[in-house]
From TrEMBL:
Top-level division of the source organism's lineage: Bacteria
NCBIfam families: MSMEG_0570_fam
Protein name: MSMEG_0570 family nitrogen starvation response protein
Amino acid sequence: MPAIHFHVRWPDGSEDQCYSPSTVVKEYFQVGERLSVDAFVERADTALEAASQRVEQKFGFFCSSAMDQSTVIKAKAQQFGNNPQDMVEIIRID
């Protein structure tokens, strides 16, 4: 199962490389897409849950790294509050 990374730019200009154990995240994000922080967190959580489930289907156990990545994303998002104009941009998927 090929792991991939999706790279994001946060509203403060910082960039993060996010891990996924499955290419399924490509079904949830497109390069250049901009999402509100809340929408990004919700979609990332859904995508990483789907990726973890694919790992479980193949290997019989969930991927703790996917869940850890979701936790990191949620923690980072807390820095930005609820301003709907704050956007997260998907800058690369590889």
